[in-house]
Amino acid sequence: MYVWNRTGRLVCSLQKQLPEIKGNIVSHQSARALRAATALVLCLSFLPVGFSLAQSIDFDDSYIDEIIVTSRYRAEKLSDVPDSITAFTAADIERHRIERINRVAELTPNLRFSDDQEVGVSTLVIRGVRQNRGTGQPPVSFRIDGISATNNLLTTQELFDIESVDVLRGPQGALYGRNAIGGAILISTRQPTATPEYNFRISAAEGQDYAVGGSASGPLVNDKLLYRASFRIQDREGQLRNTFLDNQYVDYKESSAFRGRLLFTPSERLSIDLRGQLLDQEGGSGYFMPGSEGFLPLPPPAAPILFGNPTYIIQSNRIGESFVDAREVSAKIDYEFGWGTLSSITSYTDVDSGNDQDLDQTLFEAIDIIVIDESETVAQEFRLVSNSNTAFRWAAGLQYFSQDRFRSLATTFLGFPVPPAAQDLKLENFAVFGNFSYDIRDDLELTLAFRYDDETPKDVTQGRSSTFSELQPKASLAYSFREGLLGYVTVGKGFRAGGFNNLSAGSNFMPGFDKESLLSYETGLKGNALGGRLRAGVSLFLIDYTDQQFFLFDQTGTQANINIPESEITGGEIEVTAVPIDSLQLNLGFGFTSSEIKEYEAVPGVLVPASEIVGRNVPGAPVWTLNLSAQHTLSLSDDLAIVSRIDYEHRDKTYWTLDNLDIQPAYDLTNLSLALESERWTTRLYVNNVFDEDYIEWFFAARFIGLPADIAWPSKPRQAGLEFSFRY
């Protein structure tokens, strides 16, 4: 097999491709250990002779803390924002052990996140709006400290030293930019502090899964220049084995991440926030399980080959390898005028990734693939936000986005190389946006918002270009029945641009796919009651979808998006947090969707006839989910407590395919944790997937993609672990 770079020059053979691009994974262990030691020394080098307490733990669970969000670029109570929002505080992140977005999804109604295929690949579904893989775009605006994750490979990164996570459902383009068609995921890391602060964490779990992390923060020049440095390193041998390759582990992973921030405030009006981040992930790839016996059709006069492989057993004929490297720098400059704040947000992101895997996923040598993905992105936003102490409040701005992305997919078919699917894609986006809120009365707020996108993808390899433009208005009316009880109705339009498929020779997919848009109608009620012992919210929505994008791939290595002309999704969410008695907190989250593909026409490359797709459910999300959790705090003294948690999640059936013939049956997951917490340290024992539930994370049907067999991504087995954190 051969892989070509964007100029058409031969790069290297299969045996040398990944080592030359990334270096041998095993040989990186010593370098990784050196990086780990260096990061640790960097943090510890700032330790003073004497130290002060960085944070304390509140053991009083007799009430629910008020959550403050900044989803409209101003500090507001969660109960005052007319949107369906799931918010996680620093305490939630600690006690739920939120280290990646998949954990957030487990706790959020109508949000599903699946890891599959390789370390950088994920499939995110929010309210039935799906992730587009390959060079496609995510269905949410994914932002860390206000900086957009400009590549879909970055949604799988580890979350460390995190202060809050907010999940906003419904179109959010007016405030959060491109691809916010289904919502926004807003992550805030811990800020630099004016007093010295240090944190250290270490954990060990089944699968020889070890992780270490830490942070240091404090002043460099009085209160004018503050810093924060944090890191996380993980080394996991794995728990899933390939029984046909000497029981080797397939889900191994090594990752390291480092983040540094400088906050410079030369005056009361001006602040400059500089941020840099390095991410490095290496791990297994392509350990899908065949969901049916392999059947390889061959052109005449050859006869088809029946593999006769076992099903639902990891059996690829090679151990897959994959990696993602990312480097990001950003600068956020704020200047306060007295009547408002002008912000400039600039970012540069460089992402390199690759994977080498068995594409047919059977124990036979049928189809192999090497994927190379490289991108560079520059983004700039100018935003002007008014003060919040007036009846009329507004935010407006301009955004620019430019990305150069090269992606190559090279396959071998029965040992013979197939010309690679290579694409050099240049993407440019200009946008203007605004959000305006007015208090018609003290208890009635009207919000009008808009975003106008003009996005141009250019497929340099094939000499193709197209421009997709869309105006996305949004309006909401919010009524305060009383202090702490808000009702609202919202109508908004969402948009995601079209693009070009990365075609390989022999593929029948169309060279491009169209933009998609949706109209979302939502009503909700949210508020607090019982003197701070109850917080609840309910929302109902209807989505009228036009040209919904849907991801498929085939045996040639082509990864393509197609359009479904018309579909409809209805659903809702219920979230409740309650403290029925002192020291006991209960949480409930319920989400459901009902959908229908209203219109579908035959699409080249899709092997299933249209008559079997029209009228079916939009696939990818459970029909309904239920989350229940209970947390009990037993105070042993003023600064010591035992905190126990149980989290239960029910996921109802999930339709995997457009014709709804392949279904993941309903299943249940349970997590337990027991922690001993003090002001300065915490020791926590945890067990995830207590009953070792076996299910499918993601599924592709052979009849849609032309592979020899259906393929299914295995679930994670039960894992018990112990972690210790220390802060001062």
Structure report:
The protein has 728 residues and is mainly β. It has one domain: Maltoporin, Chain A (Beta Barrel). Helix content is 6%, strand content 57%. The chain has 6 helices and 46 strands. Strand 16 and strand 17 form a beta hairpin. The longest helix is centred in the N-terminal third of the chain and has 17 residues, at 28-44. The model is unreliable at 1-57 (pLDDT under 50).
What order do the helices and strands come in, and which of them pair?
Layout: E1 2-4, E2 10-13, H1 14-22, H2 28-44, E3 68-69, E4 76-77, E5 84-88, H3 90-96, H4 101-106, E6 111-115, E7 122-126, E8 129-130, E9 140-144, E10 147-148, E11 162-169, H5 173-176, E12 183-189, E13 197-205, E14 209-221, E15 225-236, E16 241-242, E17 248-249, E18 253-264, E19 270-283, E20 289-290, E21 295-296, E22 305-306, E23 321-336, E24 340-358, E25 367-386, E26 392-413, E27 416-441, E28 444-459, E29 464-465, E30 468-482, E31 485-496, E32 499-500, E33 512-513, E34 516-529, E35 534-553, E36 559-581, E37 584-599, E38 624-637, E39 640-651, E40 654-655, E41 663-664, E42 667-678, E43 681-688, E44 696-700, H6 702-705, E45 711-714, E46 719-727
Parallel strand pairs: 9-12
Antiparallel strand pairs: 1-2, 3-4, 5-11, 6-7, 7-8, 9-10, 11-12, 13-14, 13-46, 14-15, 15-18, 16-17, 18-19, 19-23, 20-45, 21-22, 23-24, 24-25, 25-26, 26-27, 27-28, 28-29, 28-30, 30-31, 31-34, 32-33, 34-35, 35-36, 36-37, 37-38, 38-39, 39-42, 40-41, 42-43, 43-46, 44-45
